[in-house]
Please model this.
Amino acid sequence: MEWYANIIIDISLEKLDRTFQYRVPENMLADIKPGMQVLLPFGKGNRQTTGYVMEVTDKAEFDPDKIKPILKLIPESITAPNQMLALAAWMRTNYGGTMNQALKTVLPVKKKEAEKETRMISLKMDREQATALYHEMVRKHQTARARLLEAVLTHGKIPYHVVTGKLNVTASVVRALEEAQMIRVERFRSFRNPLQGMKQEKKDITLSSVQQQIVEDIKAHVAQGDTRPCLIHGVTGSGKTEVYMELIASAIEQGKQAIVLIPEIALTFQTVMRFYNRFGDRVSILNSRMSAGERFDQYERAQRGEVDVMIGPRSALFTPFSNIGYIIIDEEHEATYKSETMPRYHARETAIYRASLSGGCVVLGSATPSVESYTRAKEGSFRLYELQQRVEERPLPQVYVEDLRQELRKGNRSILSDKLRELMEDRLAKKEQIMLFINRRGVAGFVSCRSCGHVIKCPHCDVSLSLHNNGKMICHYCGHVEDAVSACPSCGSKLIGTFKAGTQKIEAYLKEQFPQAGVLRMDWDTTRKKDSYEQILSAFANQEADILIGTQMIVKGHDFPNVTLVGVLAADLSLHVSDYRAAERTFQLLTQAAGRAGRGKRPGEVVIQTYQPENYAIQTAKDQDYQAFYDQEISFRQMLRYPPVWNLLVIHMAAATQEDVDAIAKKLAGFVKSSKGLQIIGPADPVIAKVNDIYRKVMYLKGAEYSQLISIKDQLEIYIKEEEITKYGAVQFDFNPMNGF
Ligand code: ADP
Ligand code: ZN
Ligand code: ZN
Model:
């Protein structure tokens, strides 16, 4: 069989936006790898140039007789920058967009002015001679020169800024002595270390036998070259982080490095401390609050081999390590692992490719794995590990599901069910703390009946319709439109409409109902200022308030041992967003929210309020039964051909006028219409069809195979170029979106 390599020509040339195919000569077959640099004949004159291997394949892209052979492999060349290049090309292929966008994503921007430099001054001549010169200077009253020389003689090396500062010696004097060959000025780049000055506390933990087995099994498979991604399914507090750290330690012993991805919101001081205690100064972190210069320094330190472990959000994936042993993705189900700008990559998929470049292994962890990952684990393309026992065997909280339709029948129209109100009074009397959770997603307004819980859904897509100001209800998947209703089609009640409850309103209501209680509110409004997020959480942790009310921000991370009651005010808000992941998201949120109760010695209770107590996402969350949830969810996805059973490509279109965006939508819809085996939905108006005077349209393509969608995306990119569509507007691709519309 003949083998070919798809190669990206060296970065100094402009031909970056595509790969070129070359033949792999037989004798190179054993050694060639993605990311490797190679020597090639290029262009008409067969000029020798270098390129980087993206992929080795047996599929010739054109007449095999015309494919030129690679001249030479440049071994030892899978350096970090080459790997990043390979990664960029892979991202471009898999997520669309330009090579330039992909490169900007993977290569940190070098900011010259952000670099920090330290200069050190030392003696350049022998001491005797210098001492003689010093005495001469004193005699001649050259006091500044004398001061400088004396300092260098006594201290050996002194920082430049001390000389010009404390010693009060001018730059021109330093210059004069330097030119007279008396002293030497050396420049060092200094890299800001965000963890500098932290105290390391070694803690000895002996892994439990289950933890130990997982570590040994993963290590054994990796040692045999089986680097399939591993999924650790384990509740919070089951000891996943200890497993990660043990694996990382074994990688470091072999001279390898590790990347740990954590959702930004969970990247707390405590988390960082645990890694620091274990690995000391070999750890660094990235977060969005660092300046561009600080972030760049961390990438530089990694490339220079000063750190072995990088912890951070999505972008930490692009740390230029050359020999990655493990990439850990904690809370792998989180939507923040998906980028919302081009290329719209998913950190999980990207990590798997990134790790493959150096034979590393990806380890995913979650209490509520994404349906995608769990499916792949069941199919065997991921290895599954269960870690279900909490380390200190604390009991799971008692969960009550309260039916809001019943409350209405009893005449209770307030936002608190009788059960929740009763438990709140009990906790306030006992001075225990309460968290109330309101899910803000879905505020876009699905229409539901307060009497019977009926939700108005699209007859084609089985997602809820949203009510618009023009009195129409719209499906944001397919564009289906209905007139708004004034009575419930199921029970006839007039209490039908959109569900609205803001955190601010709830706060006011609580203050009126429980005037003696201290209430803290955490939502988008109250956390806009830097550090306000930490301030609110630490005030609550210090028990400065009895009740914390907030959006999904409050359900993550932090341990509050004094919280013994968690209330979910309206579970339906996330259940009926028009998104095929609505049930999954709801299950995850409810499970996490329940996990907040009873973290300390006292057992916790959870109240979930809903209009649809029979919904499977709510029932399975009540029982904390992931498997039962998964089984129902995957049959829903199968039935409606949603990911991961099928794959979904969203095409976002935007233009400055309605006519332009309509024209683009019409053209692209016409182009894809003839594609075989694809299901096409839309084009339709997205939830927010007009933002900042930009008009938008979306279209969904469903295909059984991801590769089908990549191929249609490639064809569309060519078509868009040919038709010069970008003159009228912009088109973006989003594969298997995390935030559906
Ligand atoms: P997870 O990452 O699943 O939330 P952690 O690894 O953070 O779980 O473990 C929860 C707590 O239990 C931590 O304080 C951790 O130090 C402790 N812990 C984990 N494993 C052990 C063990 N084998 N022995 C003692 N303590 C442990
Ligand atoms: Zn009804
Ligand atoms: Zn629809």
User: Anything to note?
Assistant: The radius of gyration is 30 Å. The pocket of zinc ion (ligand 2) is lined by residues 449, 451-452, 454, 488, 490-491, 493 (CB under 6 Å). The longest strand covers residues 47-57.
